[in-house]
Amino acid sequence: MHAVICEDLWKSYRLRRPVGLKGMLLGGVPRDTRFSRHWALSGVNFIVTRGQALGVIGPNGSGKTTLLALLLGAIRPDRGRAILNGRAASLLELGAGFQGHLTGRENVYLYGSILGMTLEEIRARFDRIAEFSEMEASLDRPLRRYSAGMIARLRFSVIIHSPAEILLIDEVLTVGDARFQRKCLDALREFKQRGGTLLLVSHDMDEIASLCDDAILLDFGSVVDAGPAREVAARYQDRTLGPGHSQAQAMNARISLLLPTRGRAELLRRFLESVLARSERPELVEVVVYADEDDPSSHGFQVEGLEVHTIVGPRASMGDYNTACLERSRGDIVVLANDDVVIQTRGWDRKLREMHAAMQDRVYLAYPNDLFKGRGLSAFPILSRTVCQLLGEPFPRAYRGAFIDYHLLDIFKRLEQHGHPRLIYLEDMVFEHMHYRTGKGDFDEIYGKRDRFGDDATFLRMRDERNAAAQRLLAAIEGESARHPQAAVTTPPELLRVSLLDTELPVSWRLRLFLWFLARNLARLVLGRVSRAPTPGSPAP
Amino acid sequence: MPRVERSPRQLAEFLYLLTRQELKARYKGRLLGYVWALAHTFALAFVYWIAFKIIMGLEVTNYSVYLVAGMFPWVWLAVGVTSATRSFVVNAPLIKEMGLAHAILPLSNVMQEMAHFVLALPAIIAWVVLPGGYDASLSWLWQIPLMLLVQLAFVYPIALGCALANAYVRDIEYFLGIGFPLLFFATPMVYPISIVPEPLHDYFELNPLHALMQSWRSVFMEGSLDPAHVAYVAGWALALAAVAWLLYRKLAPRVGEVV
Predict the structure, then answer these.
(1) Around B183, how many Cα atoms within 13 Å sit in the side-chain half-sphere?
(2) CB contact, 8 Å: B98 with chain A?
(3) Residue of B4, B7, B171 lying closest to A88 (CB–CB)
(4) Residue range A138-167: average pLDDT?
(5) A250-472 maps to which CATH number?
(6) Given an 8 Å threshold on Cβ–Cβ distance, is B25 in contact with A88?
(7) Mutate which of A113, A123, A169 to test chain B, going by most B C-beta atoms within 10 A?
(8) Would you say B73 and B216 are in contact if contact means Cβ atoms under 8 Å apart?
(9) Which residues of A touch B95 (CB under 8 A)?
(10) Residue ranges of chain A that CATH labels 3.90.550.10
(11) Would the pLDDT of A185 be above 60?
């Protein structure tokens, strides 16, 4: 279902020569030269599907505001159609509808009414609006005593509580302090999750990239670039600020720690405190926790000075948990962590950013020293946002509990085989893994309940997906033209095909995979545990 | 076009909020809010009373009542139209951003001035009854509401037309600044129509403002209403409404671009 449709949209303005009433009445200026035409939009086409967010970027005067005005029906197009399918509300930069001599409360009512709400609807929402704006105490003061930030907060609060299905927002989240901005972004994300459609005009590329699915770049009234928001924003930024900019920016990259947890409130707190204590710039670090609905002890964890988001959802697979956290996260660097980890390296975040900045194309799989598996396994994989997008599903939902680390490592081993060693072991960045097998933690029921062999089959089955993912990364490194033919595979038993005979992998990794799976199959026989998923093929040596 | 959906009820609520809050803002925060609102018009009447009655010796029975009974409806008309004329320009952000139902904005200005007039009614009546010595009339109960409606119907199309024109040509508001004082003296407001020289008399009668003001005065001073006058004003109101409607259809769509 399309919520916003722009079809071959053209709009010109007549520029008035300074003629004045005298000139008009007395003539003297030929009629057709009194005006010159300026094409603000020439042939703009796009569609926004319900529940999606479209970012509109472009330099000043590129037609962004005209586009919104056309959608809102404030002005009419010369040609084409601009349609909003559904109730719409807009929040534009001029600050319409707020009157200085009225109180905050009166302005909420008036503004709500301007947005098309009935008195009943406004009354029903008033308390929530006031609470969201955090200005309950000032609502009876006239608006002219408010600061610009306060007015922006109030405006946003009204908009976000309006019953609109489509929000058109122009450059307004830049007002208000950082914490409130974050609250707005969260509210907009929630709005999207409820099925709301968003059209966001902004010069803040991070905002566009984190909030929007797709983006269009307007220049001189035409769409000159379109595609996934992150890519369009990055290309625009490179074009306007030069490539050097992205290096400087990399040193301010945000880091997201993804953290599924269950029933380990104490470990969770210990982890969060170590994050805060060892970070040089905790303001650029966020933690996204996934807690099960039936595990209230893990809900709503907060640590003063650290941005912690908690997703509460149903019990699901490890892949689901990680994916949910990833979707919620905004960082440029994504770290898959665990609750039984303690960060031991002071300035770990700076080390990570330095690595991130050094990898110009951002294609890497980094992992810290966990003082347990060490170099051998990427137990806590670290990916750039770019890689997450290239992989599509970096943490496949099919994995119920384990093997995500192996899955990622395998992809990057394939890359290594093609001459691109992008596996980065950060030996001096310690994420100490307090695993029970290291003797640093207890064997609790969370470990105990794990089905240790449930994912073996999944890993084997997903070989082709990993190969395709590696090819995509390869293309990103070498440019689109480089396409490597897939290795011809015969159909020996599954394990052989995926390990020893897979020419896309380095020999050492083939050997290791083969032995590892062999050992696991033996262990399974010995332990007499039966995997829930039937293993395809016969894993015979 | 499915823009912001607005039911008639929602529009009415919007008009109510806009008008009420402007009124509240004007009366609130001033010790003598209500008195100030009245004082201006009474002072005007007083100045004319000095000038015409005392200095020039104009002979009109109960001249002070004659002045006051006409002055208040005039202020409603003149201030209402003048402030409504600026309404699109003043609210440019609203129109640019919201694609708002434009016609409500000047209506709100006219309604505000009408509310001032209604609030002033007790003072006008007190003036008519006490110093004037006229009897309060029961017929006011229908005459005053009727006249309120007639004047609203007469003023609003003018206000809407001026607001639309002013969006395109800003000169209108300055033009009105000159036009209303001229009209004020061209209409028998401070003098009775009886002293207008005979050859001009019929032209003066054509002025709908005269019929309107004369109706108010006869309501307040005699408790009577000339149906011919009311019908004449109503006829004008209809004609003006037709013109305003045509203007609105032609000019409103591009108001968002020119304000």
Answers:
(1) 15
(2) yes
(3) B4
(4) 87
(5) 3.90.550.10
(6) no
(7) A113
(8) yes
(9) 74
(10) 250-472
(11) yes
| CB contact set of A31 (below 8 Å; sequence gap of 6+) | none
Dihedral sign, CA of A183, A186, A192, A197?
A: positive
pLDDT grade, residue A483 (50/70/90)? very low
Within 8 A of B18 by CB-CB distance, chain A residues are 110, 113
Strand, coil or helix: B102 = coil
Contact between residue A172 and residue A25 where contact means Cβ atoms under 8 Å apart: no
Asked if B2 and A86 come within 8 Å (Cβ–Cβ), the reply is yes
DSSP string, A195-234: T-EEEEE-S-HHHHHHH-SEEEEEETTEEEEEEEHHHHHH
CA distance A127 to A136: 9
Question: For the range A442-449, what are the long-range contacts, defined as Cβ-Cβ under 8 Å and sequence gap of 24 or more?
Answer: A444/A263, A444/A264, A445/A263, A446/A262, A446/A263, A446/A264
Distance CA A143, CA A533 (A): 64
- Which of A9-13, A246-250, B185-189 has the highest mean predicted lDDT (pLDDT)? B185-189
Secondary structure in 3-state letters for A137-161? HHCCCEHHHCCHHHHHHHHHHHHHH
Q: Supply B240's token pair.
A: 């003006």
**What sign has the CA pseudo-torsion A431, A436, A437, A438?**
positive
**Domain-wise residue ranges, chain B:** 8-258
Burial tier of A373 (Cβ tally within 10 Å: 0-12, 13-18, 19+): middle
Grouping H, G, I as helix, E, B as strand and the rest as coil, residue A3 is strand
Question: Residue A301 pairs with which residues in a beta bridge?
Answer: none
Give contacts of B21 with chain A, Cβ < 8 Å: 99, 102, 106, 109-110
3-state secondary structure A64-113: HHHHHHHHHCCCCCCEEEEEECCCEEEECCCCCCCCCCCEHHHHHHHHHH
The C-alpha angle A39, B252, A77, rounded to 5 degrees, equals 25
CA distance B187 to B79: 16
The token pair that represents A395 in the structure block:
């943490």
Architecture in CATH of A2-19+33-245: 3-Layer(aba) Sandwich (3.40)
Give the pTM: 0.61
User: E strands, A390-541, where?
Assistant: 423-433
What residues of chain A have any CB closer than 8 angstroms to a CB in chain B?
Answer: 13, 21, 24, 68-69, 72-76, 83-90, 92, 94-97, 99, 101-102, 106, 109-110, 113-119
Alpha carbons B250 and B244: distance in angstroms, whole number: 10
Instruction: Please state, rounded to an integer, the average pLDDT across all residues of chain A.
Output: 82
Of B2, B5, B99, the CB nearest to A74: B99
CB < 8 Å to A86, chain B:
2
The Cα–Cα gap between B112 and A450 comes to 73
Q: Given this model, what pLDDT does residue B110 score?
A: 96
Judged by DSSP in three states, A251 sits in coil
Write the residue in A97, A110, A118 that is nearest to B10 by C-beta. A118
Which of B160, B162, B149, B158 is CA-nearest to residue B234? B149
Q: What is the pLDDT of residues B144-168, one digit of tens each?
A: 999 999 999 999 999 999 999 999 8
